[in-house]
Each structure stands twice: as C-alpha cells, then as structure tokens.
Amino acid sequence: MDVPRNTVVAVVDGENFNLYKVGGDAGDLRLSPMRQHESEDRNSASGRSSSAANPAAKQMEEDAFGKGVVDKLNAMVLDGGAMLGNG
User: Where is the composition biased (Low complexity) (predicted)?
Assistant: First the structure.
C-alpha cells in the first residue's frame, strides 16, 4: 500500500486515539507519533440503551468514544488542519 509522506494516520481502538505522521520512504516507512488526543464525547452514544436485559454499557462507551473521535477529526479538518500541524 502506497501511503504518501506527511499523511496523518489515526489509530483508534475504542479507548485510545493517537495520531501519527507518515515519514520515510516506500522501502522504509516510519510513523512519527503526534500529540495524543482526547475524544470529547464519551457519554452520549445514541441508538443504544443499556439494561440488565441488554448489558451494552461497554458498547455504548465505545460508540460514544468513536463519535467523539469522528467529531474531533472533522473539527481538525474544518479548522484547516491547524491542530494537525498544517495550519
């Protein structure tokens, strides 16, 4: 897979949100960590409810975290990439 230099890669696992910048070349690809970001929406997953009959609390937390990450990335792009080191 050909990934251009200076591409920003988001790595998200439901609890962590890290950004890396691609460096190096095709034969020696390197990811440089950027500052760690916090998802700002950890408590509001829509579309799911949790109860004893449907213990989806962990899934709701992950959904809210994912929504927060998407919102944060969207804000970064709309801000012209300043928060990504491009502005």
Answer: 44-57
pLDDT of 71 over the 80 cut: yes
How far is 72 from 61, CA to CA, in rounded Å? Answer: 16
SS3 content of the chain, % helix, strand, coil (to 5): 30, 25, 50
pLDDT band at 24 (very low <50, low <70, confident <90, very high): confident
Q: How many CB atoms lie within 10 A of CB 56?
A: 14
Beta-bridged to residue 25, according to DSSP, are 28
Q: How far is CA 77 from CA 32, 42, 51, 73, 86, in A?
A: 19, 21, 37, 6, 10
In angstroms, the CA 61 to CA 49 distance is 11
Delimit the domains of the chain by residue range: 8-82
Q: How confident is the model at residue 45 (pLDDT cuts 50, 70, 90)?
A: very low
